[in-house]
Amino acid sequence: MLVAGGYGAVGAVVTSALNAWFPGRAVPGGRDAERVRRLGGVQVDVSDPDGFGRELAALGDVGMVVLCVEPPDASIARVCLERGIHLVDVGATARLLDAVAELSPIAAATGATAVLSVGVAPGLTNLLARRAHRDVGGARSVDITLLFGAGERHGADALRWTIAGLAEPVRAAPRLVPLPGFGTRTAYPFPFSDQHTLPHTLGVPDVTTRLCLDSRPLTAALFALRRTGLVRLIGRPRAQRRVARALAGVHLGGDGFVVRVDARSGGRHAAYALTGREQSRVTGLVAAHTARALLDGRGFPAGVHHIDELPALAGLPEDLVRHGDIGLLRRAAPTGGQRS
Ligand SMILES: NC(=O)c1ccc[n+]([C@@H]2O[C@H](COP(=O)([O-])OP(=O)(O)OC[C@H]3O[C@@H](n4cnc5c(N)ncnc54)[C@H](OP(=O)(O)O)[C@@H]3O)[C@@H](O)[C@H]2O)c1
């Protein structure tokens, strides 16, 4: 197994969990020759598909790639699926997931399976959305709310993704949402990929994902950027990297996170909430559990699938609760869904 980005905030958790279950079989990959040498990994660059393919060939018997860094396009997924190599992808950018989903006929032909939307958001959000959707007998709308800890040490790639997301246009309004352990918070629409893919996988017409941080001042400051001209400046990659570096030094909160999902249909309402610590770590654990289930071959059809399309992974939240990795999984108190 090759874990691309395998010594980053998410990838290091994947590598170590897989090596605990399958000793010596998970190899971390990244661009830094010195780190790779120290960790006994391989030097790979996900922006160089030809080089990536050569590295796979050199490694020999690679049955699976876990992508823990975002490539520029779907070329790395194509390289894996054409060779019949399974893929687990923690990416959260809708455009890239769509491009990988188009490779499904290739995966079906080679017998490979790709699992997309793996992590906390997308990931656990997709699984809870499916439950809430089922509970109301088919939702007309799903609202996903995330609270992330501003004190967590997020990886550089995840921060870059978040900054880029701030610069994207949004269509929905902020909402006041009660979140277990954090009171009622204003959460702002944010371009997580779950709201883009769930309308297709669940058939729910209206899905919105909103985000807030545990620190109220930092949430207000971050989303105030949207209302100013500054947001246009951070649309540029160099500015994104600068803002990401500045944010990496800010630790105003804790490392707890909350996921809440509300599904509605007519007068019916179902809601689930889940809490945990260190969303990068839990993302890595979701990816590791997914990779393990895929290796075990438990009911995974060939082709490209989002996590919520695979019944074999529906019980993943309970697996994490059993291991103490997420503290709580419960039906949340209903909310009227007030506009803020
Ligand atoms: N689904 C979810 O819930 C979820 C949650 C958190 C994060 N994520 C996603 O997970 C990804 C990783 O986040 P993270 O927090 O772990 O970031 P990170 O700590 O910056 O880790 C990224 C890793 O990838 C390597 N890398 C960077 N560019 C690369 C390239 N071109 N080729 C090969 N390796 C490269 C880095 O090492 P080198 O620089 O040495 O190459 C590093 O080890 C992000 O894309 C983020 O959006 C998803």
From TrEMBL:
Organism: Streptomyces chromofuscus
Domain of life: Bacteria
PANTHER family, alphabetized: CARBOXYNORSPERMIDINE SYNTHASE
Protein name: Saccharopine dehydrogenase
Gene3D superfamilies, per the entry: NAD(P)-binding Rossmann-like Domain (3.40.50.720)
